[in-house]
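Narrative of activities, Objective 1.

The group set out to show that a structural description can be obtained from nothing but a protein's sequence at a throughput compatible with the screening campaign. Below is one input-output pair from the validation batch, recorded exactly as produced.
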Amino acid sequence: MNTAQTPSTQAQAAAERFALRVTARLSGGTDDLPYDISERLRASRVQALARRKKEPAPVRLATPVVMHGRGGAATLGSGSGNERGGWWNAVVSAIPLMALVVGLVVINTAQDESSVNDVAEVDTALLTDDLPPAAYADPGFVQFLKTAAATH
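Output recorded for this entry:
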């Protein structure tokens, strides 16, 4: 009979021995503690155990995924063996992608129209004003506006 342990089982055994020694040492020291401290430690242990990570449950698929091999090539399938409606599944799968593309085009068009309307509004205001557009770029005109506003 072969009793040789693999390195992983040796490491697990060593970790368990260490954990037992630490537990024994900590438990031995609790006898000398006052009652209120030992109760707080007990409550903390209960909280720590309640919050510890639970192992995730294994994920199960609704239909098993099976590898189908055809002439040396392997493909993934649902395992149902029903390949009818393959084109229908492709069309139905493409609908969300098409909706996304249409939505992006509509948003882009709306933003372009909005920016064009804003520019047209500013141009209309400049061209229908009593002052020529070059007056707004003149630094003396800005000073004139400041002094006119201060005197009124």
